[in-house]
Amino acid sequence: MPQELLEGRDRERDFIQQMMDPTKIKPFDLPVTIKATLRKYQQEGVNWLAFLNKYHLHGILCDDMGLGKTLQTICIMSSDHHIRAEKFAETGSAEYRRLPSLVICPPSLTGHWEQELNQYAPFMKVLVYAGNPSIRAPLRSKIPDVDVVVTSYDVARNDVEHVTLQDYNYCVLDEGHIIKNAGSKLSKSVKRVRAEHRLILSGTPIQNNVLELWSLFDFLMPGFLGTEKVFHEKFAKPIAASRNSKTSSKEQEAGALALESLHKQVLPFMLRRLKEDVLSDLPPKIIQDYYCELSDLQRKLYKDFAKSQKESIKSEVQGSEKEGKTHVFQALQYMRKLCNHPSLVMSPQHPKYPEINKFLVSRNSSLDDIEHAPKLLSLKNLLLECGIGTQDSDYNKSTKKKNQQLISAEGVISQHRALIFCQLKDMLDMVENDLLRKYLPSVTFMRLDGSTDPRDRQSIVRKFNEDPSIDVLLLTTKVGGLGLNLTGADTVIFVEHDWNPMNDLQAMDRAHRLGQKKVVNVYRLITKDTLEEKIMGLQKFKMNIASTIVNQQNAGLQSMDTNQLLDLFDVDDSAKIEDTVKDENGTNGGDGSSSAAGASGAHGNIPDDIAGGLTGKAAGAVGELGDLWDESQYEEEYNLDNFIKTLK
Predict the structure, then answer these.
(1) Between 20 and 30 A from 174 (CA), which of 127, 309, 493, 584?
(2) Model-level pTM?
Protein backbone atom coordinates (compact mmCIF):
# COMPACT_ATOMS: atom_id res chain seq x y z
CA MET A 1 0.00 0.00 0.00
CA PRO A 2 1.42 3.41 -0.94
CA GLN A 3 2.81 5.45 1.95
CA GLU A 4 0.30 8.23 1.30
CA LEU A 5 -2.63 5.82 1.72
CA LEU A 6 -1.10 4.35 4.87
CA GLU A 7 -0.77 7.79 6.40
CA GLY A 8 -4.35 8.61 5.42
CA ARG A 9 -5.59 5.40 7.02
CA ASP A 10 -3.71 6.19 10.23
CA ARG A 11 -5.18 9.69 10.32
CA GLU A 12 -8.68 8.30 9.90
CA ARG A 13 -8.14 5.71 12.64
CA ASP A 14 -6.78 8.42 14.90
CA PHE A 15 -9.83 10.58 14.23
CA ILE A 16 -12.33 7.77 14.90
CA GLN A 17 -10.52 6.78 18.08
CA GLN A 18 -10.65 10.33 19.45
CA MET A 19 -14.25 10.84 18.42
CA MET A 20 -15.47 7.70 20.16
CA ASP A 21 -13.32 8.07 23.28
CA PRO A 22 -12.70 11.62 24.63
CA THR A 23 -9.87 10.32 26.84
CA LYS A 24 -7.90 9.64 23.65
CA ILE A 25 -8.15 13.25 22.49
CA LYS A 26 -4.75 14.86 22.21
CA PRO A 27 -3.87 17.70 24.63
CA PHE A 28 -4.31 21.20 23.29
CA ASP A 29 -1.73 23.79 24.30
CA LEU A 30 -3.28 27.24 24.55
CA PRO A 31 -1.42 29.62 22.21
CA VAL A 32 -2.64 32.62 24.21
CA THR A 33 -2.35 33.63 27.85
CA ILE A 34 -5.59 33.08 29.73
CA LYS A 35 -5.68 34.74 33.14
CA ALA A 36 -6.92 31.66 34.94
CA THR A 37 -5.60 28.30 36.06
CA LEU A 38 -7.61 25.56 34.40
CA ARG A 39 -8.65 22.58 36.45
CA LYS A 40 -7.92 19.16 34.96
CA TYR A 41 -11.47 18.60 33.71
CA GLN A 42 -11.54 22.11 32.21
CA GLN A 43 -8.36 21.43 30.24
CA GLU A 44 -9.92 18.19 29.03
CA GLY A 45 -12.97 20.18 27.99
CA VAL A 46 -10.79 22.59 26.01
CA ASN A 47 -9.06 19.58 24.40
CA TRP A 48 -12.47 18.29 23.28
CA LEU A 49 -13.47 21.69 21.91
CA ALA A 50 -10.15 21.89 20.03
CA PHE A 51 -10.81 18.43 18.55
CA LEU A 52 -14.19 19.59 17.25
CA ASN A 53 -12.56 22.74 15.89
CA LYS A 54 -9.83 20.83 14.07
CA TYR A 55 -12.26 18.60 12.21
CA HIS A 56 -14.91 21.29 11.68
CA LEU A 57 -17.41 19.50 13.89
CA HIS A 58 -19.88 21.17 16.22
CA GLY A 59 -21.19 20.14 19.62
CA ILE A 60 -22.86 20.74 22.96
CA LEU A 61 -20.82 21.38 26.08
CA CYS A 62 -23.35 20.28 28.68
CA ASP A 63 -21.26 20.21 31.84
CA ASP A 64 -23.16 20.43 35.10
CA MET A 65 -24.11 23.95 36.12
CA GLY A 66 -21.25 25.85 37.74
CA LEU A 67 -18.29 23.98 36.22
CA GLY A 68 -16.99 26.82 34.06
CA LYS A 69 -18.46 26.33 30.59
CA THR A 70 -17.90 30.04 29.90
CA LEU A 71 -14.19 29.85 30.72
CA GLN A 72 -13.65 26.76 28.56
CA THR A 73 -15.42 28.47 25.68
CA ILE A 74 -13.33 31.63 26.06
CA CYS A 75 -10.19 29.47 25.91
CA ILE A 76 -11.01 27.83 22.57
CA MET A 77 -12.55 30.96 21.08
CA SER A 78 -9.58 33.21 21.88
CA SER A 79 -7.10 30.50 20.84
CA ASP A 80 -8.74 30.07 17.45
CA HIS A 81 -8.82 33.83 16.86
CA HIS A 82 -5.08 33.91 17.55
CA ILE A 83 -4.38 30.93 15.26
CA ARG A 84 -6.46 32.44 12.44
CA ALA A 85 -4.58 35.74 12.74
CA GLU A 86 -1.23 33.95 12.52
CA LYS A 87 -2.28 31.92 9.48
CA PHE A 88 -3.65 35.00 7.75
CA ALA A 89 -0.37 36.82 8.37
CA GLU A 90 1.52 33.87 6.86
CA THR A 91 -0.69 33.15 3.85
CA GLY A 92 -2.91 36.16 3.25
CA SER A 93 -5.62 33.66 2.40
CA ALA A 94 -9.24 34.81 2.68
CA GLU A 95 -9.91 31.48 4.41
CA TYR A 96 -8.24 32.93 7.51
CA ARG A 97 -9.56 36.48 7.26
CA ARG A 98 -10.55 38.24 10.44
CA LEU A 99 -13.99 37.18 11.66
CA PRO A 100 -15.64 38.15 14.93
CA SER A 101 -17.29 35.52 17.09
CA LEU A 102 -20.89 35.80 18.21
CA VAL A 103 -22.17 34.87 21.67
CA ILE A 104 -25.97 34.74 22.05
CA CYS A 105 -27.24 34.44 25.61
CA PRO A 106 -30.16 35.39 27.87
CA PRO A 107 -30.23 39.17 28.49
CA SER A 108 -29.23 38.67 32.13
CA LEU A 109 -25.92 37.17 30.97
CA THR A 110 -24.67 39.75 28.47
CA GLY A 111 -22.86 41.63 31.23
CA HIS A 112 -21.55 38.35 32.64
CA TRP A 113 -19.95 37.43 29.31
CA GLU A 114 -18.41 40.88 28.93
CA GLN A 115 -16.93 40.65 32.42
CA GLU A 116 -15.60 37.10 31.92
CA LEU A 117 -13.99 37.98 28.59
CA ASN A 118 -12.36 41.09 30.04
CA GLN A 119 -11.17 39.12 33.06
CA TYR A 120 -9.78 36.01 31.36
CA ALA A 121 -8.90 37.26 27.86
CA PRO A 122 -8.43 41.05 28.07
CA PHE A 123 -6.73 41.04 24.64
CA MET A 124 -10.09 40.18 23.03
CA LYS A 125 -12.06 43.24 21.95
CA VAL A 126 -15.68 42.84 23.05
CA LEU A 127 -18.84 44.56 21.82
CA VAL A 128 -22.09 44.16 23.76
CA TYR A 129 -24.81 44.55 21.15
CA ALA A 130 -27.76 45.40 23.41
CA GLY A 131 -30.07 48.21 24.47
CA ASN A 132 -33.02 49.77 22.66
CA PRO A 133 -33.04 50.11 18.83
CA SER A 134 -31.63 53.64 18.90
CA ILE A 135 -28.66 52.43 20.95
CA ARG A 136 -28.07 49.33 18.82
CA ALA A 137 -28.17 51.07 15.44
CA PRO A 138 -24.78 52.87 15.70
CA LEU A 139 -23.16 49.71 17.12
CA ARG A 140 -23.69 47.69 13.93
CA SER A 141 -20.81 49.32 12.07
CA LYS A 142 -18.43 48.19 14.83
CA ILE A 143 -19.25 44.47 14.53
CA PRO A 144 -16.63 43.60 11.84
CA ASP A 145 -13.83 45.24 13.85
CA VAL A 146 -14.21 43.46 17.20
CA ASP A 147 -13.27 39.96 18.31
CA VAL A 148 -16.47 39.02 20.12
CA VAL A 149 -20.03 40.28 19.78
CA VAL A 150 -22.26 39.52 22.78
CA THR A 151 -26.01 39.83 22.33
CA SER A 152 -29.24 38.41 23.69
CA TYR A 153 -31.68 35.98 22.08
CA ASP A 154 -34.35 38.67 21.85
CA VAL A 155 -32.03 41.08 20.06
CA ALA A 156 -30.78 38.32 17.73
CA ARG A 157 -34.39 37.59 16.80
CA ASN A 158 -35.47 41.21 16.40
CA ASP A 159 -32.32 42.28 14.53
CA VAL A 160 -31.84 39.06 12.56
CA GLU A 161 -31.48 40.93 9.25
CA HIS A 162 -28.59 42.97 10.66
CA VAL A 163 -26.93 40.25 12.74
CA THR A 164 -26.81 37.79 9.83
CA LEU A 165 -25.14 40.25 7.44
CA GLN A 166 -21.83 39.31 9.08
CA ASP A 167 -20.02 35.96 8.89
CA TYR A 168 -18.65 34.75 12.22
CA ASN A 169 -15.86 32.51 13.43
CA TYR A 170 -17.68 31.00 16.42
CA CYS A 171 -21.40 31.20 17.12
CA VAL A 172 -21.96 30.23 20.75
CA LEU A 173 -25.45 29.74 22.18
CA ASP A 174 -25.28 30.04 25.95
CA GLU A 175 -28.21 28.29 27.66
CA GLY A 176 -28.80 26.94 24.16
CA HIS A 177 -31.81 24.84 25.18
CA ILE A 178 -33.71 28.09 24.61
CA ILE A 179 -33.92 27.17 20.90
CA LYS A 180 -35.59 23.82 21.72
CA ASN A 181 -38.77 24.75 19.84
CA ALA A 182 -37.77 24.27 16.22
CA GLY A 183 -40.81 26.13 14.94
CA SER A 184 -40.33 29.32 16.94
CA LYS A 185 -39.24 32.58 15.32
CA LEU A 186 -36.32 32.73 17.76
CA SER A 187 -35.03 29.30 16.76
CA LYS A 188 -35.39 30.03 13.05
CA SER A 189 -33.60 33.38 13.43
CA VAL A 190 -30.62 31.91 15.29
CA LYS A 191 -30.24 29.16 12.69
CA ARG A 192 -29.73 31.79 9.99
CA VAL A 193 -26.38 32.82 11.51
CA ARG A 194 -23.38 31.78 9.38
CA ALA A 195 -20.36 30.64 11.39
CA GLU A 196 -17.26 28.49 10.95
CA HIS A 197 -17.82 26.82 14.31
CA ARG A 198 -21.06 26.36 16.24
CA LEU A 199 -21.27 25.54 19.92
CA ILE A 200 -24.13 25.16 22.41
CA LEU A 201 -23.65 25.55 26.16
CA SER A 202 -26.32 24.10 28.42
CA GLY A 203 -26.35 22.33 31.76
CA THR A 204 -29.82 21.00 30.91
CA PRO A 205 -29.88 20.38 27.14
CA ILE A 206 -33.08 18.33 27.15
CA GLN A 207 -35.93 19.38 29.41
CA ASN A 208 -39.17 17.95 28.08
CA ASN A 209 -38.86 15.64 25.08
CA VAL A 210 -36.41 14.24 22.57
CA LEU A 211 -37.65 16.52 19.76
CA GLU A 212 -35.81 19.33 21.55
CA LEU A 213 -32.58 17.48 20.80
CA TRP A 214 -33.42 17.55 17.10
CA SER A 215 -33.77 21.33 17.17
CA LEU A 216 -30.39 21.75 18.89
CA PHE A 217 -28.62 19.57 16.33
CA ASP A 218 -30.50 21.30 13.52
CA PHE A 219 -28.55 24.40 14.59
CA LEU A 220 -25.24 22.58 15.04
CA MET A 221 -25.24 20.22 12.05
CA PRO A 222 -28.40 20.46 9.92
CA GLY A 223 -29.39 17.05 8.58
CA PHE A 224 -27.29 15.06 11.06
CA LEU A 225 -30.42 13.66 12.73
CA GLY A 226 -32.48 13.67 9.54
CA THR A 227 -35.57 15.76 8.99
CA GLU A 228 -37.83 16.52 11.93
CA LYS A 229 -40.42 14.10 10.55
CA VAL A 230 -37.90 11.27 10.16
CA PHE A 231 -36.50 11.95 13.63
CA HIS A 232 -39.99 11.78 15.14
CA GLU A 233 -40.74 8.44 13.50
CA LYS A 234 -37.34 6.90 14.21
CA PHE A 235 -36.74 8.12 17.76
CA ALA A 236 -39.40 10.30 19.40
CA LYS A 237 -42.39 8.11 18.60
CA PRO A 238 -41.04 4.74 19.84
CA ILE A 239 -39.45 6.33 22.92
CA ALA A 240 -42.73 8.03 23.83
CA ALA A 241 -44.73 4.85 23.17
CA SER A 242 -42.49 2.82 25.48
CA ARG A 243 -43.39 5.10 28.40
CA ASN A 244 -47.05 4.16 28.34
CA SER A 245 -47.96 1.88 31.25
CA LYS A 246 -50.07 -0.26 28.89
CA THR A 247 -47.31 -0.70 26.35
CA SER A 248 -46.37 -4.19 25.16
CA SER A 249 -42.98 -5.76 25.76
CA LYS A 250 -42.28 -5.37 22.05
CA GLU A 251 -42.96 -1.62 22.22
CA GLN A 252 -40.81 -1.29 25.33
CA GLU A 253 -37.97 -3.03 23.53
CA ALA A 254 -38.41 -0.78 20.49
CA GLY A 255 -38.27 2.30 22.74
CA ALA A 256 -35.13 1.07 24.49
CA LEU A 257 -33.43 0.36 21.16
CA ALA A 258 -34.39 3.79 19.81
CA LEU A 259 -33.01 5.47 22.93
CA GLU A 260 -29.77 3.50 22.72
CA SER A 261 -29.39 4.29 19.03
CA LEU A 262 -29.97 8.00 19.60
CA HIS A 263 -27.55 8.02 22.52
CA LYS A 264 -24.80 6.47 20.38
CA GLN A 265 -25.41 8.85 17.49
CA VAL A 266 -25.13 12.07 19.49
CA LEU A 267 -22.64 10.89 22.13
CA PRO A 268 -19.47 12.07 20.30
CA PHE A 269 -20.86 15.58 20.04
CA MET A 270 -21.94 16.09 23.65
CA LEU A 271 -19.56 16.42 26.59
CA ARG A 272 -21.07 16.11 30.07
CA ARG A 273 -19.31 16.15 33.45
CA LEU A 274 -21.05 16.25 36.84
CA LYS A 275 -19.98 18.32 39.83
CA GLU A 276 -19.78 15.32 42.13
CA ASP A 277 -17.41 13.61 39.68
CA VAL A 278 -14.91 16.43 39.14
CA LEU A 279 -15.15 18.76 42.15
CA SER A 280 -14.04 16.94 45.27
CA ASP A 281 -13.77 20.26 47.13
CA LEU A 282 -17.31 21.51 46.37
CA PRO A 283 -19.45 21.57 49.55
CA PRO A 284 -22.73 19.62 49.46
CA LYS A 285 -26.13 20.98 48.51
CA ILE A 286 -28.96 20.10 50.90
CA ILE A 287 -32.55 20.48 49.68
CA GLN A 288 -35.28 20.73 52.30
CA ASP A 289 -39.04 21.16 52.06
CA TYR A 290 -40.50 23.79 54.39
CA TYR A 291 -44.24 23.35 54.79
CA CYS A 292 -46.83 25.96 55.64
CA GLU A 293 -50.59 25.77 56.20
CA LEU A 294 -53.29 27.67 54.35
CA SER A 295 -54.70 30.59 56.31
CA ASP A 296 -58.41 30.45 57.15
CA LEU A 297 -59.13 32.93 54.38
CA GLN A 298 -57.04 31.02 51.86
CA ARG A 299 -58.61 27.70 52.83
CA LYS A 300 -62.14 29.04 52.37
CA LEU A 301 -61.34 30.58 48.99
CA TYR A 302 -59.37 27.52 47.88
CA LYS A 303 -62.04 24.97 48.84
CA ASP A 304 -64.89 26.99 47.37
CA PHE A 305 -63.03 27.54 44.12
CA ALA A 306 -61.77 23.97 43.68
CA LYS A 307 -65.19 22.46 44.28
CA SER A 308 -66.99 24.97 42.06
CA GLN A 309 -64.64 24.34 39.16
CA LYS A 310 -64.88 20.56 38.94
CA GLU A 311 -68.20 20.48 37.10
CA SER A 312 -67.32 23.24 34.65
CA ILE A 313 -63.94 21.63 33.98
CA LYS A 314 -65.65 18.30 33.39
CA SER A 315 -68.03 19.72 30.81
CA GLU A 316 -65.42 21.86 29.04
CA VAL A 317 -62.72 19.21 28.64
CA GLN A 318 -65.34 16.98 27.06
CA GLY A 319 -66.21 19.77 24.65
CA SER A 320 -63.84 22.07 22.78
CA GLU A 321 -60.20 21.09 23.32
CA LYS A 322 -59.04 24.72 23.05
CA GLU A 323 -61.64 26.06 25.49
CA GLY A 324 -61.09 23.21 27.92
CA LYS A 325 -57.32 23.66 27.88
CA THR A 326 -57.62 27.41 28.41
CA HIS A 327 -60.02 27.00 31.33
CA VAL A 328 -57.80 24.42 33.04
CA PHE A 329 -54.72 26.62 32.70
CA GLN A 330 -56.57 29.60 34.13
CA ALA A 331 -58.00 27.57 37.00
CA LEU A 332 -54.64 26.04 37.93
CA GLN A 333 -53.02 29.46 37.78
CA TYR A 334 -55.72 30.86 40.07
CA MET A 335 -55.08 28.09 42.63
CA ARG A 336 -51.35 28.56 42.37
CA LYS A 337 -51.58 32.31 43.04
CA LEU A 338 -54.01 31.76 45.90
CA CYS A 339 -51.45 29.50 47.59
CA ASN A 340 -49.04 32.44 47.59
CA HIS A 341 -51.27 35.28 48.74
CA PRO A 342 -55.06 35.84 48.59
CA SER A 343 -54.63 39.39 47.31
CA LEU A 344 -53.09 38.00 44.10
CA VAL A 345 -56.57 36.79 43.08
CA MET A 346 -58.93 38.85 45.27
CA SER A 347 -59.17 41.96 43.09
CA PRO A 348 -62.18 44.34 43.12
CA GLN A 349 -63.40 42.50 40.00
CA HIS A 350 -63.71 39.24 41.92
CA PRO A 351 -67.39 38.39 42.63
CA LYS A 352 -66.58 37.54 46.25
CA TYR A 353 -64.57 40.72 46.85
CA PRO A 354 -67.37 42.75 48.55
CA GLU A 355 -68.23 39.83 50.83
CA ILE A 356 -64.60 39.12 51.79
CA ASN A 357 -63.74 42.79 52.23
CA LYS A 358 -66.76 43.36 54.49
CA PHE A 359 -65.80 40.32 56.56
CA LEU A 360 -62.20 41.55 56.98
CA VAL A 361 -63.22 45.12 57.85
CA SER A 362 -65.54 43.81 60.57
CA ARG A 363 -62.50 42.17 62.14
CA ASN A 364 -60.26 45.21 61.73
CA SER A 365 -58.20 43.37 59.13
CA SER A 366 -57.32 43.69 55.43
CA LEU A 367 -56.11 41.50 52.58
CA ASP A 368 -52.60 42.85 53.03
CA ASP A 369 -52.26 41.55 56.60
CA ILE A 370 -49.47 39.00 56.80
CA GLU A 371 -51.68 36.61 58.80
CA HIS A 372 -53.55 35.83 55.58
CA ALA A 373 -50.33 34.82 53.78
CA PRO A 374 -48.61 31.98 55.68
CA LYS A 375 -45.89 31.80 53.03
CA LEU A 376 -44.69 35.26 54.04
CA LEU A 377 -44.83 34.28 57.70
CA SER A 378 -42.90 31.09 56.95
CA LEU A 379 -40.34 33.05 54.95
CA LYS A 380 -39.95 35.49 57.83
CA ASN A 381 -39.38 32.66 60.32
CA LEU A 382 -36.99 30.89 57.97
CA LEU A 383 -34.86 34.00 57.51
CA LEU A 384 -34.73 34.55 61.27
CA GLU A 385 -33.74 30.90 61.80
CA CYS A 386 -30.91 31.43 59.32
CA GLY A 387 -29.73 34.45 61.32
CA ILE A 388 -30.84 36.88 58.63
CA GLY A 389 -32.59 39.88 60.19
CA THR A 390 -33.74 40.56 63.75
CA GLN A 391 -37.17 40.26 65.35
CA ASP A 392 -38.68 43.71 65.87
CA SER A 393 -42.10 44.56 67.29
CA ASP A 394 -42.06 48.23 66.34
CA TYR A 395 -42.30 48.91 62.62
CA ASN A 396 -42.55 52.72 62.44
CA LYS A 397 -40.12 54.66 60.32
CA SER A 398 -38.12 56.13 63.18
CA THR A 399 -37.49 52.66 64.61
CA LYS A 400 -36.46 51.36 61.20
CA LYS A 401 -34.01 54.22 60.83
CA LYS A 402 -32.67 53.69 64.34
CA ASN A 403 -32.20 49.97 63.74
CA GLN A 404 -30.47 50.55 60.43
CA GLN A 405 -28.13 53.13 61.99
CA LEU A 406 -27.33 50.74 64.84
CA ILE A 407 -26.60 47.88 62.46
CA SER A 408 -24.46 50.13 60.31
CA ALA A 409 -22.55 51.42 63.32
CA GLU A 410 -21.87 47.98 64.73
CA GLY A 411 -21.03 46.52 61.34
CA VAL A 412 -23.28 43.51 61.87
CA ILE A 413 -22.98 40.95 59.08
CA SER A 414 -25.23 37.91 58.94
CA GLN A 415 -23.60 34.50 59.02
CA HIS A 416 -25.76 33.38 56.08
CA ARG A 417 -26.84 35.17 52.92
CA ALA A 418 -29.85 34.20 50.83
CA LEU A 419 -31.23 34.14 47.31
CA ILE A 420 -35.04 34.36 47.35
CA PHE A 421 -36.71 33.17 44.13
CA CYS A 422 -40.28 33.90 43.02
CA GLN A 423 -41.94 33.10 39.71
CA LEU A 424 -44.21 36.13 39.75
CA LYS A 425 -42.98 39.72 39.90
CA ASP A 426 -46.11 40.56 41.94
CA MET A 427 -45.14 38.01 44.55
CA LEU A 428 -41.60 39.39 44.65
CA ASP A 429 -43.14 42.83 45.29
CA MET A 430 -44.98 41.38 48.29
CA VAL A 431 -41.83 39.79 49.68
CA GLU A 432 -40.09 43.15 49.40
CA ASN A 433 -42.84 45.48 50.61
CA ASP A 434 -45.06 43.36 52.87
CA LEU A 435 -42.29 41.39 54.54
CA LEU A 436 -38.78 42.83 54.33
CA ARG A 437 -39.58 46.54 54.52
CA LYS A 438 -42.40 46.15 57.02
CA TYR A 439 -41.36 43.31 59.32
CA LEU A 440 -37.62 42.83 58.76
CA PRO A 441 -36.26 46.36 58.31
CA SER A 442 -32.81 45.27 59.44
CA VAL A 443 -32.41 43.01 56.39
CA THR A 444 -30.41 44.59 53.60
CA PHE A 445 -31.33 43.43 50.11
CA MET A 446 -30.98 43.95 46.38
CA ARG A 447 -33.32 42.93 43.60
CA LEU A 448 -33.04 41.45 40.12
CA ASP A 449 -36.10 40.90 37.91
CA GLY A 450 -37.39 41.50 34.40
CA SER A 451 -37.63 45.25 34.94
CA THR A 452 -33.91 45.50 35.74
CA ASP A 453 -31.97 46.96 32.82
CA PRO A 454 -29.85 44.11 31.36
CA ARG A 455 -26.86 46.46 31.38
CA ASP A 456 -27.16 46.82 35.17
CA ARG A 457 -27.66 43.16 36.04
CA GLN A 458 -24.02 42.13 36.15
CA SER A 459 -23.12 45.07 38.40
CA ILE A 460 -25.88 43.97 40.82
CA VAL A 461 -24.48 40.43 40.82
CA ARG A 462 -20.95 41.73 41.38
CA LYS A 463 -22.00 44.00 44.23
CA PHE A 464 -23.96 41.24 45.96
CA ASN A 465 -21.05 38.79 45.74
CA GLU A 466 -18.49 41.32 46.94
CA ASP A 467 -20.45 43.03 49.72
CA PRO A 468 -21.16 40.65 52.64
CA SER A 469 -23.33 43.28 54.34
CA ILE A 470 -26.09 42.61 51.77
CA ASP A 471 -28.21 39.85 53.31
CA VAL A 472 -30.60 38.97 50.51
CA LEU A 473 -30.92 39.07 46.75
CA LEU A 474 -34.52 38.95 45.48
CA LEU A 475 -34.91 37.35 42.05
CA THR A 476 -37.46 36.07 39.60
CA THR A 477 -36.57 32.57 38.44
CA LYS A 478 -36.80 33.58 34.79
CA VAL A 479 -34.19 36.34 35.12
CA GLY A 480 -32.00 35.06 37.94
CA GLY A 481 -32.15 31.35 37.22
CA LEU A 482 -29.80 31.17 34.24
CA GLY A 483 -26.05 31.43 34.10
CA LEU A 484 -25.39 33.92 36.91
CA ASN A 485 -22.67 33.30 39.47
CA LEU A 486 -24.10 34.04 42.93
CA THR A 487 -21.71 32.17 45.20
CA GLY A 488 -21.92 35.03 47.70
CA ALA A 489 -25.08 33.28 48.97
CA ASP A 490 -25.18 29.96 50.79
CA THR A 491 -28.96 29.81 51.27
CA VAL A 492 -31.52 29.50 48.46
CA ILE A 493 -35.24 29.90 49.14
CA PHE A 494 -38.00 29.16 46.63
CA VAL A 495 -41.20 30.98 47.56
CA GLU A 496 -42.72 29.72 44.31
CA HIS A 497 -41.72 26.88 42.06
CA ASP A 498 -41.30 26.28 38.36
CA TRP A 499 -43.09 23.06 37.57
CA ASN A 500 -40.30 22.10 35.22
CA PRO A 501 -37.82 20.92 37.89
CA MET A 502 -34.83 21.63 35.65
CA ASN A 503 -35.53 25.37 35.88
CA ASP A 504 -35.43 25.24 39.67
CA LEU A 505 -32.25 23.16 39.55
CA GLN A 506 -30.70 25.81 37.31
CA ALA A 507 -31.73 28.50 39.80
CA MET A 508 -30.40 26.78 42.92
CA ASP A 509 -27.10 26.14 41.20
CA ARG A 510 -26.50 29.88 40.94
CA ALA A 511 -25.07 29.44 44.46
CA HIS A 512 -23.94 25.80 44.30
CA ARG A 513 -21.14 26.12 41.80
CA LEU A 514 -17.40 26.56 41.38
CA GLY A 515 -16.16 29.07 43.95
CA GLN A 516 -18.68 28.18 46.67
CA LYS A 517 -16.95 27.50 50.02
CA LYS A 518 -19.98 26.80 52.21
CA VAL A 519 -22.66 24.13 52.36
CA VAL A 520 -25.62 25.35 50.30
CA ASN A 521 -29.03 24.92 51.93
CA VAL A 522 -32.03 25.03 49.61
CA TYR A 523 -35.52 25.53 51.07
CA ARG A 524 -38.75 25.09 49.13
CA LEU A 525 -41.81 26.72 50.71
CA ILE A 526 -44.74 24.42 49.99
CA THR A 527 -48.38 24.96 50.98
CA LYS A 528 -49.84 21.77 52.45
CA ASP A 529 -53.06 20.10 51.28
CA THR A 530 -53.11 21.97 47.97
CA LEU A 531 -52.39 21.49 44.30
CA GLU A 532 -48.94 22.87 45.04
CA GLU A 533 -48.06 19.97 47.33
CA LYS A 534 -49.48 17.42 44.92
CA ILE A 535 -47.32 18.68 42.09
CA MET A 536 -44.19 19.41 44.12
CA GLY A 537 -44.44 16.01 45.75
CA LEU A 538 -43.95 14.45 42.34
CA GLN A 539 -41.12 16.65 41.08
CA LYS A 540 -38.08 14.52 40.30
CA PHE A 541 -35.26 16.66 41.67
CA LYS A 542 -32.65 13.93 41.29
CA MET A 543 -33.21 13.52 37.55
CA ASN A 544 -30.00 13.44 35.60
CA ILE A 545 -31.10 14.28 32.08
CA ALA A 546 -27.74 14.27 30.40
CA SER A 547 -26.72 10.89 31.82
CA THR A 548 -29.16 9.30 29.36
CA ILE A 549 -29.01 12.19 26.85
CA VAL A 550 -32.77 12.56 26.82
CA ASN A 551 -35.47 13.20 29.38
CA GLN A 552 -38.77 11.38 29.68
CA GLN A 553 -41.19 12.90 27.21
CA ASN A 554 -43.94 14.91 28.84
CA ALA A 555 -47.38 13.97 27.57
CA GLY A 556 -48.81 17.33 28.58
CA LEU A 557 -52.34 18.49 29.16
CA GLN A 558 -53.77 17.08 25.96
CA SER A 559 -53.00 13.49 26.98
CA MET A 560 -54.83 13.62 30.33
CA ASP A 561 -58.26 12.08 30.56
CA THR A 562 -61.12 13.87 32.33
CA ASN A 563 -60.66 12.01 35.62
CA GLN A 564 -56.99 12.94 35.77
CA LEU A 565 -57.78 16.61 35.28
CA LEU A 566 -60.59 16.63 37.83
CA ASP A 567 -58.32 15.06 40.42
CA LEU A 568 -56.15 18.18 40.34
CA PHE A 569 -59.09 20.08 41.82
CA ASP A 570 -59.64 17.70 44.75
CA VAL A 571 -59.30 19.27 48.20
CA ASP A 572 -57.65 17.04 50.78
CA ASP A 573 -58.74 17.97 54.29
CA SER A 574 -57.61 14.73 55.88
CA ALA A 575 -54.39 14.07 57.67
CA LYS A 576 -53.32 11.43 55.20
CA ILE A 577 -50.74 13.75 53.68
CA GLU A 578 -49.10 14.17 57.06
CA ASP A 579 -47.16 10.95 56.72
CA THR A 580 -45.66 12.14 53.46
CA VAL A 581 -44.05 15.20 55.01
CA LYS A 582 -42.15 13.39 57.74
CA ASP A 583 -38.57 12.34 57.50
CA GLU A 584 -37.24 8.97 58.54
CA ASN A 585 -37.08 10.09 62.16
CA GLY A 586 -40.75 11.07 62.17
CA THR A 587 -40.18 14.82 62.40
CA ASN A 588 -42.25 17.25 60.40
CA GLY A 589 -40.84 18.25 57.03
CA GLY A 590 -41.34 21.90 57.92
CA ASP A 591 -38.31 21.66 60.14
CA GLY A 592 -36.36 20.40 57.16
CA SER A 593 -34.58 17.10 56.85
CA SER A 594 -31.21 16.84 55.21
CA SER A 595 -30.63 14.83 52.09
CA ALA A 596 -27.71 14.18 49.83
CA ALA A 597 -26.76 16.82 47.32
CA GLY A 598 -29.37 17.02 44.64
CA ALA A 599 -31.96 15.04 46.57
CA SER A 600 -35.52 16.20 46.91
CA GLY A 601 -35.46 17.53 50.44
CA ALA A 602 -37.40 15.73 53.10
CA HIS A 603 -38.86 13.43 50.49
CA GLY A 604 -35.56 12.03 49.26
CA ASN A 605 -36.29 10.32 45.95
CA ILE A 606 -40.05 10.86 46.34
CA PRO A 607 -41.40 7.38 45.57
CA ASP A 608 -44.64 7.24 43.62
CA ASP A 609 -46.63 5.91 46.56
CA ILE A 610 -46.39 9.19 48.50
CA ALA A 611 -47.94 11.47 45.89
CA GLY A 612 -49.75 13.62 48.42
CA GLY A 613 -53.25 12.15 48.14
CA LEU A 614 -53.34 11.76 44.37
CA THR A 615 -54.95 8.78 42.71
CA GLY A 616 -52.73 6.60 40.56
CA LYS A 617 -53.84 8.15 37.27
CA ALA A 618 -53.48 11.71 38.47
CA ALA A 619 -50.10 10.98 40.01
CA GLY A 620 -48.84 10.05 36.57
CA ALA A 621 -50.57 13.01 34.97
CA VAL A 622 -49.17 15.59 37.36
CA GLY A 623 -45.72 14.11 36.91
CA GLU A 624 -45.98 15.04 33.25
CA LEU A 625 -46.90 18.71 33.82
CA GLY A 626 -43.30 19.90 33.71
CA ASP A 627 -43.47 21.77 30.45
CA LEU A 628 -46.85 23.39 31.02
CA TRP A 629 -45.93 25.99 33.62
CA ASP A 630 -44.53 28.83 31.55
CA GLU A 631 -45.22 32.31 32.94
CA SER A 632 -45.50 34.04 29.58
CA GLN A 633 -47.97 31.40 28.45
CA TYR A 634 -50.08 32.07 31.50
CA GLU A 635 -49.99 35.84 31.31
CA GLU A 636 -50.50 36.19 27.57
CA GLU A 637 -52.72 33.35 26.40
CA TYR A 638 -54.54 32.48 29.61
CA ASN A 639 -55.28 35.91 31.08
CA LEU A 640 -56.30 35.50 34.72
CA ASP A 641 -58.05 38.86 35.09
CA ASN A 642 -60.54 37.95 32.38
CA PHE A 643 -61.03 34.55 34.00
CA ILE A 644 -61.80 36.06 37.42
CA LYS A 645 -64.53 38.21 35.88
CA THR A 646 -66.30 35.03 34.74
CA LEU A 647 -66.46 33.53 38.23
CA LYS A 648 -69.82 33.41 39.96
Answers:
(1) 493
(2) 0.71
